[in-house]
Amino acid sequence: MATQLKASRRDFLKIAGTSVGGLVIGFNWFSCDSPKVEVLSTEQILSQAKSFNSYLSISPTGDVVIYSPNPELGQNIKTSFPMVVAEELEADWEKVRVVQANLDPAKYDRQLTGGSGAMPHSWERLRKAGATAKFVLVAAAAKTWNVPAAEITVEKGIISHKGSGKSGHFGEFVTEASAMTAPEEVTLKDKKDFKIIGTPVKNVDSKDMYTGKPIYGLDFQREGMLHAMIQRAPFGMKIKSVDDSGARAVSGVKDVVTFGTSVAVVGNSTWPLLKAKKLLKVEYEPDGTVESTADHDRLFAELLKSGKAEVKRKDGNVDAAFKGAAQVITSEYQCPFIAHSPMEPENFFAHVKGDKVELIGPTQTPDRARQETATLLGIPPENVSVEITRLGGGFGRRLRADYVIEAVEVSRAVNAPVKVTWSREDELTGGAYRPAVRYRFEAALDASGNMIGYKLRGVGMNAGNTTRENNFPSGAVDNVLIESIEHKSSITTNAWRAPITNFLAYAEQSFLDEVALAAGKDPVQFRLDLLNRAKTTPVGELGYDVDRMIGVVKTAAEKSNWGKNPNVKQGFSVYFSHRSYVAQVADIEMQGGTPVLKKITAVTDCGMVVNPTGANHQVRGGIVDGMGHAMYANLTFENGVPKQKNFDSYRLIRLKEVPEIDTHFVDSGFDPTGLGEPALPPTGGAIANAIFSATGRRLRSQPFIEQKEFSDIKLEIRRA
Amino acid sequence: MANFNLKINGKSHTVDVEDDTPLLWVLRDHLGLVGTKFSCGIAQCGACTVHLNGNATFSCVTPVSSVGNGEVVTIEGLSEDGDHPVQKAWAEVDVAQCGYCQAGQIMTAAAFLETNSNPSMEDIDNAMNRNICRCGTYHKIREAVALAAKTK
């Protein structure tokens, strides 16, 4: 089924010849109102990154260069985007080179990494770009050989005409192609004919990563560049006084500058700054509320009781349903603040030169870095250039530009190029955390065990809407009330991989297990009954596709042999987030009285899988991440300062602590959706439900290892 | 400040730094060998792993003054062209996500396989447990170490 798609020239296509015969296709992956035709030499195409970054270019040698605009932080977009272009182009993947584009809002739309949104946003654009390039190359070959274009075939960068026996590589036709007019319509390939998409293509940065090339922001160095490290104020505090005499006395320290609530030590290298920072004597005073974890616990209890909630969803008559219920189940679930902890700590290079600024470093949102810099300095945004390095992880932390602005502040103050580096202690104490949240769930069952009422109230610390009100089980229950309450905390928060759902899914899926048990139903059948209800007689708005959710539930039950082996205690969980559906089953085997977590089975519906290696990575990585933080991570506060300051007290999951992960993908026929986040939310619930199944202990707070219900459970993790 | 003569990747380097400067920062800030990564600074995560006389060593807590005549090998010096069996296995298995910790993982694995050329999966687990991967590539790390052991 070939699809005819209107390929508006204004939308993305420009063709240009080059002085030495290369072809440049400015496909402006994203719509652009005023695309420019740039005429470039082959040398420029192959060597000068900055001059043609919105383009797919093909040299006379047949080499293909594809620019990847979105920041790469491990989600593998730098490999999977070009795969889609190369597929429609019928390129030889071995001859494709990928280059990270710098920030250029005139050429790229949505040049950010977040929300698992890049692939669904760009899928069709990428395909059209490749197909259009192929179209003009074929037209050029047809003209050259004087044969009908329809008789020409293309495979691995070789254009062939069977009848005449002629063939040649892309490079031989780029000059002719550059004189062609862009087509109004292009034909996209049948998905069944895909040769690159759906195959395990290897990471394009492999060799650089495994040989220690300077590809990350922290690796950036330049002659004359100064280093800076920063002491930040506790949350809710401001600076009262600074005694920097000790810091200044450290050999290698050049300057100490104060801005806002921060004090920066500046020098020629990092180590003296790590020492000098410890010698800063900064006195702080309250500037608003100074909070501790005990305050949060009190606030959670008070706010859950208070009447002042924002109603996010209301169906039917909840009061009547609960009044007439045969059984009511109520439970509360709580999660702590946690940090993002990318392995590469926050860092950025800035050089303020008059009214111009050069920024280089790891960011998920280069445009935000530019805008905030422009605002700070009162200069036009176009005066700020942003070069995007590879990111050593992000998890949402690098959606913010706070650490970029610090580099700008210091560069401006010392009038020199500066790289700000955060230590791990800075990263754990420097804010923008996953917010702490507490939920109260209530379910009303009728005499037959049907859920006739469902209530959820969430309280979050700077969490915004703590609920996903149109997500399952909404739509499957007649009487629903979903409410959210926000406490404005002085502790800063930010999106953290799968925002809100990274905890909500665990809480909800654990609670539904409690309800299934109370109803005397199998947890999988209980969910399927609700989903069938949502399918046949849905209540209100549904934010999810019921069939796709049923699909992953049934497949996960099948692949995990759900309920078939009495020696295996299983926990089920399913969640829809970021356009993808993931069901997981955790298996705990009792071995001589010891519960052993052996396996997590994951079934994902993310539409078509572009790169099976990348997809497996994201699902396994999401599960390891979800498990690690559910088990171990906790940031607690004392007077606005986190107590856990490094990985000795803030525990991250290690290799020996992960079970086998068995991944499966459902082919639902949909276009691909993102996978950076959706596998994480279901994991905590699957593990908690399996622990309950094995031990009878219900874990209602994270991290699990700090709960008293868990204290005498010697959970072991073993792989086959 | 004092001069230190260091043997790194088979070459001799002289640096003028304070005695307590960790080898990590000498490599990164003074010699431009940035393949060795900074992450925790307290010997917890292994991102800074180098070989010192063949032993996997946390360079973030190794003062330069303690290195002496020791032979230091960093990720840049592990092989000529990324063709050490461990690097090749890493590429074959396609281990990395963000990749930031992987140089340290590779250095740990390479030192380990010198001491145990025929490891069990349990041996691999024990050896690699000292390095943290925040992206959760642990399954692939195990697979790559096992493959490197076979091909070495």
TrEMBL record, chain A:
Name of the molecule in the record: Xanthine dehydrogenase family protein molybdopterin-binding subunit
InterPro entries the UniProt entry points to: Ald_Oxase/Xan_DH_a/b, AldOxase/xan_DH_MoCoBD1, AldOxase/xan_DH_MoCoBD2, AldOxase/xan_DH_Mopterin-bd_sf, N-heterocyclic_Hydroxylase, OxRdtase_Mopterin-bd_su_IorB
Transmembrane parts of this sequence: none
Aldehyde oxidase/xanthine dehydrogenase a/b hammerhead domain: residues covered: 211-288
Gene Ontology MF terms in the entry: oxidoreductase activity
Gene3D superfamilies for the chain: Aldehyde oxidase/xanthine dehydrogenase, a/b hammerhead, Aldehyde oxidase/xanthine dehydrogenase, molybdopterin binding domain
PANTHER family attached to this UniProt entry: ALDEHYDE DEHYDROGENASE (PTHR47495), BLR6219 PROTEIN (PTHR47495:SF3)
Record Pfam families: MoCoBD_1, MoCoBD_2
From TrEMBL, chain B:
Keywords associated with the record: 2Fe-2S, Iron, Iron-sulfur, Metal-binding, Oxidoreductase
Signal peptide: none
Annotated CDD domains: fer2
A molecular function (GO) term: metal ion binding
Designated name of the protein: (2Fe-2S)-binding protein
One family name in Pfam for this protein: Fer2
Residues of the 2Fe-2S ferredoxin-type domain: 2-78
